[in-house]
Structures are given as C-alpha cells and as structure tokens.
Design a protein that fits this description.
- With 416 residues, this protein is mainly α.
- It is 81% helix and 0% strand.
- The chain is built from 20 helices and no strands.
- Helix 4 packs antiparallel against helix 5.
Length: 416
C-alpha cells in the first residue's frame, strides 16, 4: 500500500514524501537504539553501585557526544545522569538533567511515556526534599492516568511514596497495603530497590507499635542491600532504625545504629564524589565545545559542496524553477517549526531561571528553621546533623538554600 501511494504522486513530490517517511520512522527508537540505551544503563548502574560516579558521568557524556545518537537515546542518557547526581544528593543538577531529558524525549515520538517518567522522577526528588505537596501533586496526576507507560521501577516507588504519605496521615492500614503493593512489584521487576521500600515499612511498623515486624523489615532490607552491595541502602536502613530507637527513647540501641552509620558514611563519602563529578563535567564540557566547533566547520564545508552539486544537477535537468520553489516552501515550514521549538524551549529555560531567582521568596521549611536556630546556638554542622538525625551533607544542602533565600553569604551573617 505505501508503494502505491507514493508512486501515485507526481514525480517531483516523491523525494519529499520519502524524506518525510524516513523522518517519521527515525523518530521512533529501534531495537538497536533501545539495546544501546539498556547497555548504557547497566554500565552506569554498575559504576554507581561501586561509588564510581566520575566514571558514570564520563561514560554518559561519551555516549551523548556521538552525533548519531537519537533523541530517545539522549533522553535515556540524561535520565541516567540525573540518577547519578541524585545518588550524591545534588538535587539541583538532578532537576536540571531531568529538564534536559524531557526536551530530548519529546522529540522521540514517545511524548506520553516521557512526560509520565519525568513526572515520576521529579516526584521522587521533591519527596526526598520533604516537599510533599509538590510530590503529591505529580503523584496524583500519575495515579489518575493509571501509571500509564510508567516503568515498573518508577511505579513501585510512586506507590511506596503514596503509602508513606498515608502513614503521615496515620492511615496505617492503607499505608501498609500500598507498601505491600510496592514490594510485590519490586520483587518481580527491580528487587535491588526493595531496601528503600522496607525502610518505609520500618517507620510504619514502629508507628504502629509492631516492633517485631519493624525489625524483620530492617533485617530483610539489609540482607537485600548487602546482596546487591549497595552501601547507600545499608546506610539508609541504619539511619531509619536509629531514628526509630531515638523516638522510642531507646538510646542504647540508637547509639549502636549510629556507630554503623558512622562506619558506612566513611565509605560513602558523597561530598567528595560530587566534587569529582563537577571537575570532570567542566573538563568534558570544554573538550566537547572544541569538538563542536570543529564539527560545525566540517558541516559547513559539506553543506557548501552539497549545495554546489545540487545546483549543478538542477541546471542540467532544467528543473531549476520547480525545485527552487519546492525547497523554499519546505525551508519556510522548517524555519517556522524551528522558531516555534526555540520559543518553547526558551520559555522552559525562562521558567527554570525564574524559579532560581525567586528562591528568596519561598518560605523556609520547619527543618531549615531548626537549622537556623541551632546555628544561632553556636552548633557546628556535625552537631546540627546529630541533633536533627540527618547527615552533614543534608545540613549543607539546606544551608545552601537558606543562604540563597536570605541573600547572605555565610553563617556569620545568619547569627547577627
């Protein structure tokens, strides 16, 4: 049928129809493209689990430097970069790379899938930052769509977060059902992520006074984390159980859990890894900029030669007028499309920029007010972290937001 339709058109229209068909087919990821993205994901996951974040970023940037990569492949690569930054608690870079992934993914012909996936990933970030209202808004949209086109891994985490929010509202039976549903999905599709869900169960059972179930959830989560050698999850589980013991005034056991946390933190030095990523990013960006200039020059020469050949062919065939007219119409349509895309992307960038500039207008959270209070009491970052049962990196992250919000540069100005 496609052959009959194409060759039923005028001869001069056939090349353009073929070009359009090729572009449509190219916009959808082939098996080879999906396989390339899957291979990249396995490599980056292996590096991240080994805390080799610099190798992850280097691998992702080498992948995207290939000009032959499709929008879908670039979308997958940007998602992996966001995951890597999230592993080291750099949420600003995480959100920035999610926006890049969204822009690339919308070009791939899988817009609905891409939008839902990005909504899920942003919901995870807001949840980690305790911005539950923002997270809940995105989660409701996903639930309303029936989690359509959402990978099972993301689906299990979204349902887990739904359960946690129910727990905060003291709807313990509903929370348990949600967490059980999340565990069922994770066991089948992504068992390596189970410790995260069991961490929420630890909090739930402690709130319910079911301490045997709480300890069983901890042991099962720790067993899985160790089997996959994911130090981040081990640290997370010890921190969660430590907090429960402290809430129960069982300070002896809380101290034991803190000792485990200290030893794991020495291994999992997120701040150092994050610094290495930043330095590597700058080096790679410089080399890519130089390569891009050289590539632009080569493309320009190629286009000049191509235009010369086309003009010669047009003169020989005597079709100068018809071909010029057709090329002009196509160019106008393309320029209009490009202009629209540029305006859309510019609006998105403006919105992101405005969010940062408007950060000083955002109200401080309870956690940030607690940090300010402890600073004025003369506490160090380490002492603040111990008082609030959070890591020093989390304290530093909140301090950064506080400085920006209050338009100050250091804690001395905060004390005044």
């Amino acid at each position: 049928m496609p052959r009959l339709v194409i060759f039923g058109l005028k001869k001069e229209m056939r090349p353009f129809i073929l070009i359009v068909l090729f572009a449509v087919l190219y916009s959808y990821p082939t098996e080879a493209q999906t396989a390339a993205a899957d291979t990249l994901e396995k490599t980056v996951t292996r590096f991240n689990d080994a805390l080799q974040y610099d190798r992850s970023i280097k691998t992702i940037n080498a992948f995207t430097a290939d000009s032959n990569k499709t929008p879908y492949e670039r979308y997958c690569a940007s998602l992996l970069k966001a995951y890597t930054y999230k592993r080291v608690f750099n949420y600003e870079e995480t959100l920035a790379n999610l926006d890049v992934a969204l822009a690339e993914g919308l070009k791939s012909g899988r817009a609905a899938e891409v939008r839902n996936c990005i909504k899920a990933e942003k919901a995870f970030v807001y949840f980690d930052l305790n911005e539950y209202d923002k997270a809940a808004l995105l989660m409701r949209e996903l639930e309303k769509s029936g989690y359509a086109l959402l990978p099972q891994e993301e689906k299990s985490f979204i349902i887990m977060q739904e359960g946690y929010l129910l727990m905060l509202k003291k709807n313990y039976p509903g929370a348990e059902r949600k967490l059980d549903a999340a565990i069922a999905i994770a066991k089948q599709y992504v068992p390596r992520n189970l410790p995260n869900i069991y961490g929420k169960k630890i909090e739930l059972y402690n709130a319910m006074g079911k301490y045997d179930k709480r300890d069983a959830a901890f042991n099962e989560g720790l067993r899985i984390a160790k089997s996959y050698k994911i130090i981040k999850y081990e640290l997370y589980l010890y921190e969660i159980l430590r907090n429960q013991y402290r809430d129960n005034n069982d300070y002896r056991k809380a101290f034991e859990m803190q000792q485990h946390c200290d030893s794991l933190t020495a291994v999992y030095n997120a701040a150092e890894k994050n610094t290495k990523i930043q330095i590597l990013e700058k080096r790679i960006a410089l080399s890519q900029e130089q390569a891009a200039r050289q590539a632009e020059k080569s493309v320009r020469m190629f286009l000049i030669c191509l235009v010369s050949v086309l003009l010669l062919l047009v003169i020989v065939l005597g079709r100068l007028f018809v071909i010029t007219k057709q090329k002009r119409l196509l160019a106008e349509k393309e320029n209009t499309r490009i202009h629209q895309d540029i305006e859309r992307l510019s609006r998105e960038m403006d919105e992101l920029g405005n969010n940062k500039l408007d950060l000083s207008r955002y109200p401080l959270t309870v956690r940030q007010l607690d940090i300010i209070r402890l600073i004025r009491e003369g506490k160090s970052n380490k002492e603040i972290a111990a008082s609030l049962f959070i890591s020093e990196n989390t304290v530093k992250y909140h301090l950064k937001i506080i400085y920006e919000a209050l338009d100050i540069e250091n804690r001395v100005q905060l004390i005044r």
